[in-house]
Amino acid sequence: MDGRLSPLVRLRLALGDLAAEPLRTAMAVLVLTPIAASWFLLASIAGSLQTLGEVGEERNIVVTEPDVFDVANISLDASDLATAEAEVGKQAESVTPLVLRLIELDDRVLQLRAADTETWSPVHGLALLEGRLPDDDAAEMAITRSVQVATGWEVGDVQRVFGTELTITALLEGSGSKVASLWMPLARAETLFERPGEFQFVVVRLSSDADGSEVRAALKDVFPGRLVLDESAIQAEAVEGVRSLGDLAEVFIVVGVIGLAVGSANATSLTLAERGRSVALLRVMGFAPSTVRGLLATRSLLTTGAALAVGLAVCAPFIATRPSFVLRSFIIETTLSATTVALGCALSLGSAWLGAVVASRRVLRQPVGPLLEAR
Amino acid sequence: MVEIDPATTPVEQPPVVSLSGVVRTYRRTGRPVEALRGVDLRVEPGELVVLMGPSGCGKTTLLHILGGLDRADAGEVNVAGVDLAGASQSELDRYRRRHVGVMLQNDNLLSSATAREQVALQLLARGHAWKPALGLSDGLLAQVGLADRLHHRPDSLSGGEQQRVALARALAGGPELVLADEPTGELDSDTTREVLALVTDIHRRLACTFVIATHDPQLAQAATRVVRMSDGRVIES
User: Cys-Cys crosslink for A180: which of A146, A186, B105, B114, Cβ 3.0 to 4.6 Å?
Assistant: First the structure.
């Protein structure tokens, strides 16, 4: 005869209590639902943000012109290639040109890059995911997966670029700053832009034993007034920028759990304020503080559980219809695994229980008589 | 609940309530208020004792101490063989579960529970399982004339019906002592008569000891003994 209630009876009593006042219960659930939904949405992208664009093994140094508003104004030519080749000598595996343009298609600004297809994999780190590389002589181009995600274009589609209809023949995986680009053979770009022999970047692919900083310093000497950049450093900086969003998302995930705990504690406090008489009556009947606390915690768990269910139901269609999106040319995949959901529910319910316990602590410490009089 | 059988009822039984020199002082807005100033009281098994006296004379405080809802600052408090003066909080919880049923003046019921759940909860506290508790609850509610109101919540019960539910709950599990604080305080005269008739009938039929605080002279007439209080003291017993 210890007055303890089995979990089933606790559940039955808490459900009955919540069902007795459906409007109040619905409000309590609705207050917690946005926090739960936000948590699931953030959790669905946090993993992707953290594992974004691993910086590859690229050991490229690029030479270009500074302070331009439009990359199309940059004009490098064969003499620049020759200068670079002469300077770096055996420290480079290759010295190749790269054409870069910014184009606007369907209200999106995309990069168009052109280089010899033989350099796509070894120099630019591109991997063929689908289709075949474009022919130099055909009106063809390739797109990266980010472009596909952003535009919905598929291999075989035809798109009009700078007045020319180009067939997409390949889907590529690119890394770093190159992830959202259209790619075409250098010869096709020269035809398209009608500026043969002109390009915007000299790309120096370092040999494995070369000292990058030494090569960069040498190139700066022979290209005074031009920009000489370490491509990996640029890429790393871009990745870091997006990853910091991932860190921020994780902070918000923690804040979300705390928010659920505070929300649950607040809901329990409100319950105690409005239903303090009921708590006092349970104590009059002889239920121990721990038993009453268990009832309040069960009630809080049910409310939070309902909020989690509604929150998941609200954000699941969004996640299902937007499996990925592009952020600063990085693909963010929205995935909500069973593990993430289980972890989120466990954390949220744990915090709800804690919130209820903390909120009810002071009231349940009071002797019953004063508790009755106070209510 | 046990029907009284005079043939088997022992002639000498220890008192259900034995108070000696009970003092209780509150602090209200920083000033001490002496609610009880040395109360001595003895209640024998089966008595229906009515506490009477003006408001603020200490009736409710005395009931709270008898019910293990509050503690005396000094004096001896022994109820149903339990020393309440020296009891810990958990011992007081256990005392309330095992030995006493309490009926308050108003707001006696849990707002979200039906009549049968109110009584079943008291039985749960006293160690019954849920389903048997519901069955016993139905029987108790039938005894107080509420067989057709089992599934009603307090907001759909009249004041008199609510007090009947509270009485059934106080009686649930057969406590040795039933305490009632102004049980008819907020009822109209007809309903008061009904509740009084019910209390006296139950007292007559069941071997249960009642201590009731009231201003109602009708209830005093039905009592086996009237204890008058004034200014925190028992002035007539």
Answer: A146
